[in-house]
Amino acid sequence: MAGRIFVAIDTPDLARALAIGQKLRGHAGGLKLGLEFFCANGAVGVREMAGLGLPIFLDLKLHDIPNTVASAVQALHGIEPAVLTVHAAGGRAMMEDAKAAASPGTKVVAVTVLTSLDGDDLDSIGVAADPHEQVARLTGLAREAGLDGVVCSGFEVAAARKLWKDGFFVVPGVRPAGGAIGDQKRVMTPRAALDAGASILVIGRPITKAEDPDAALRAIAATL
Ligand SMILES: O=c1ccn([C@@H]2O[C@H](COP(=O)(O)O)[C@@H](O)[C@H]2O)c(=O)[nH]1
């Protein structure tokens, strides 16, 4: 079950990222690298992390006009991550072009509603739907665009999977029972998120900020 945990290595420091990745390589299902890491280290840093031998999830959350996103995805061909994110709010054409530009071995998944947002946040940016409705809407759009799956919270994943039985569902906003939530708002435990239908879990700080990240990962895996 630990193989379904992708650890978010959110640091601009390549040496630190490599050190954490090295500690986790025996138990993590993969490593997720985001904007913080990519802005500091680029493709060269991603290749170094890939050298640890774990699948790489490149969480760039691309969101721009279709041509720009497709060109950015094309520019990643030397990396070929296992998973790449775009924002579903970029629209159907953007998602179609992102998928068409990706390497065949890369799953392209769409972020629906960030797990750091709740209904009030959606309201404040002019989205009348609640997170549940908005995730369902964007999941349908991502499916129509030919993507491989979506990113959503554990609260929406069961309904999203009903809409897309063979979709790939990435669930961040995951915390062990009683763990600090930080900036996340729609949070679920790892066990509950898998039971609800997550394909993989993304977990960052509860593991990377622990004194012993591998022990923290194994403790979470033991709850699955
Ligand atoms: O809706 C989303 C999409 C992506 N993320 C990313 O997942 C990790 C979560 O890290 P934690 O430390 O476990 O909170 C982080 O890299 C986010 O960029 C997300 O949280 N929610």
Please explain how this structure is put together.
The chain has helices at 14-24, 35-50, 66-74, 92-101, 119-124, 131-144, 157-163, 190-196, 205-208, 213-221; strands at 5-8, 30-34, 56-62, 83-87, 107-111, 149-151, 168-171, 200-203. It has 224 residues and is an alpha/beta fold. It has a single domain, classed as TIM Barrel (Alpha-Beta Barrel), CATH 3.20.20.70. α1 packs across α2 and α3 (66-74) runs parallel beside α4 (92-101). The longest helix is centred in the first third of the chain and has 16 residues, at 35-50. The relative contact order is 0.15.
Percent in strands? 15-25%
Q: What does the largest sheet look like?
A: 8 strands, parallel, barrel
> Secondary-structure element order, as H and E?
EHEHEHEHEHHEHEHEHH
Overall number of strands: 8
Query: Outline, from the CA principal axes?
Result: globular
What are the bound molecules? Answer: the ligand O=c1ccn([C@@H]2O[C@H](COP(=O)(O)O)[C@@H](O)[C@H]2O)c(=O)[nH]1
Overall helicity: 40-55%
Mean pLDDT: 97
What structural class is derived from the secondary structure elements?
A: alpha/beta
- Tally the helices: 10
Relevant terms:
224 residues; alpha/beta; TIM Barrel; eight-stranded parallel beta barrel; 42% helix; globular; binds the ligand O=c1ccn([C@@H]2O[C@H](COP(=O)(O)O)[C@@H](O)[C@H]2O)c(=O)[nH]1
Please give the structural blueprint.
Layout: E1 5-8, H1 14-24, E2 30-34, H2 35-50, E3 56-62, H3 66-74, E4 83-87, H4 92-101, E5 107-111, H5 119-124, H6 131-144, E6 149-151, H7 157-163, E7 168-171, H8 190-196, E8 200-203, H9 205-208, H10 213-221
Parallel strand pairs: 1-2, 1-8, 2-3, 3-4, 4-5, 5-6, 6-7, 7-8
Ligand LLZGTKA7 is lined by residues 8, 10, 34, 59, 111, 114-115, 151, 172-173, 182, 184, 202-205.
InterPro entries: Aldolase_TIM (IPR013785), OMPdecase (IPR014732), OMPdecase_AS (IPR018089), OMPdecase_bac (IPR047596), OMPdeCOase_dom (IPR001754), RibuloseP-bd_barrel (IPR011060)
Function: Catalyzes the decarboxylation of orotidine 5'-monophosphate (OMP) to uridine 5'-monophosphate (UMP).
Pfam families: OMPdecase
